[in-house]
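From the shared-data thread, chain only:
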Amino acid sequence: MTSRFGWTSAERDLGGRSSVLAVADFPRYLWERSGTRNLLLKPAFNPDSANVERIVEWVRTWPATPSLSICIPTRDRLDLLVPCLNSLARTCSGEPVEVVIGDTGSAAETIAAYTSMGLKAISVPGAFNFSRACNAMAHAASGDVLLFLNSDIEATTPNWVQRLLQDLDGAIAGATPIVGATLVYPGTRRIQSAGIEAVRSRPWPQPNVYRPRLQPRASRRWGLQNMDLGRRIESLPIDPATVMAVTGAFLATTRRQFSAFGSFDEAFRVDLQDVDFCLRARAQGAEVVCRRDFVFVHKHAGTRGRYPFPLDDWNLFLGRWGDELHRWAR
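Structure, as tokens:
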């Protein structure tokens, strides 16, 4: 059944959660956004409580020549990775997919867990570099379509794989698009990201804007912001939206286009490689779209927790795209 907002009952329920109360999830939304949450939560993984068998059975069904390769970078966070894989097993069962794990320095017991589940895992040695990990996974992947997915993501929407493959098999506005999904906070129906936009700095505080603090004014002239942050999913139209960029927590493109656009720039070690990639794709005629009917739970900053603002990445980004931000910023 489809609601007046265009969502099917299965998509609206987000895996069985009630969508009746619009206000009751607000305290949970505030908690999930807080930095305190990352400090208080301790990584914990109990293999007896995780449905590892489902993952093993799903891995056995993977085709020899998958159409979609799901690339997930991770390090020692089985407490995030196993629920992520379980959600994919539920929503991708029978689909022509594979998962490629990009391990950025896990302990031996984590590597053993990959092996026991039959996962395709590659090691990405050296200092942490998110771009290098993603590029290495893309090189090892077999599918014609690549989906870069964070390990702190859980899929809720059924039948999303075929719709994604249709998007990337055809063309939108004459060019194969970059596709993102709508991300929500755990336990809520409130949006964490429905695309990324540029905003101008204001004389008043802008707590939701990504930019450096206490730096020269030139570094703070622009900022980036998640679109529709905090809104309820039902308030969005169902149609895909053209956006400036989508987050690398869920970013899909074809292998051919990923190579043609130059893959992720490894000069961006921590952040902004996703926005940089989207802007380079746009400059070459591709469209960047956010699917409103792909709903994924995102445990915001769960993978790495809190970390210092990557000023080197920001300065590189600003020097490269300052003029483009001026055109996009509102």
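The radius of gyration is 19 Å.
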